[in-house]
Amino acid sequence: MNTHLLAALDIGGTKIAGALVDGIGRLLVRAQRPTPADRHGSVVMDAVRAVLGELAEDPRWARVSAVGIGSAGPVDASTGTVSPVNIPGWRDYPLVRHVREAVEGRPVVLVGDGVAMTAAEHWQGAARGRDNALCMVVSTGVGGGLVLDGRPYAGPTGNAGHIGHISVDLDGDPCPCGGRGCVERIASGPNIARRALEQGWRPRDGEEPTAQAVARAARDGDRVAAASFSRAARALAAGMAATAMLVEIEIAVVGGGVAGAGDVLFTPLRRALADYATLSFVRDLAVVPAMTGTDAGLLGAAAAAALGHSGGPAVTAGV
């Protein structure tokens, strides 16, 4: 029996979460700190060390064979550095080196958060048992990752599958990434709400103008709200179809806060996909909701560590 464990870090602009994870995906102990995103980079790293320190207090820490990090990006796994858009103090920050020092030289594997979510869904979620998949996070931004030939594929820098910055509208709005008409610029939560507001939708009294509020309005029959989700769905469908044409994925898994809209998103998404995925080898592309929820980052970081470090436990399907 393999008694090794994995330590996982999920680093975002709001929180830094950590866990000890076993070979069947059980999170045995957790730790969390708020991300001091507006502070100097060293302060953010102190929060990471605090999470690792809390995990290390558990007697099972001695069984940790490797550490996985899923971080908001961009990341560069080839250099071990991160430059998260929502953590200004980290620009080309040598995160892997600092974490390796904090964990006394254990191997450290870094991937982007979209790739981490993909690894989680392939290990424990909706893409389990699938050889070729696209997994997406549709939330404040739009990220993603790929499973190819039965393994999550991170690419040289850990960013492969970043579908949010595929251009689906050549004459569309400029995107903060420098491109134009990106999937994220149309389908992310803030952009769904922005579009609805521009077209005349207004939230109820006391309600914030979020994608969740737009989804509620769409369920209640608001046509402008429904149209904003339909437009987002078409952007997502176009990006999915383009990806499927390139690498012949068989399933697209969609998670994140916007996916919580349920049929308000998935019904127009599946309808639009039929308009874009028209060739015989992509026509049967399935679209399903993600299953790993808020634990996706931690599970995926652990899976990435296991796959990237031969001394780690072999990850197996959960029960």
TrEMBL record:
Pfam families reported for this sequence: ROK (PF00480)
Residue runs in coiled coils: none
InterPro entries, per the entry: ATPase_NBD (IPR043129), ROK (IPR000600), ROK_cs (IPR049874)
Family: Belongs to the ROK (NagC/XylR) family.
Protein name, entry field: ROK family protein
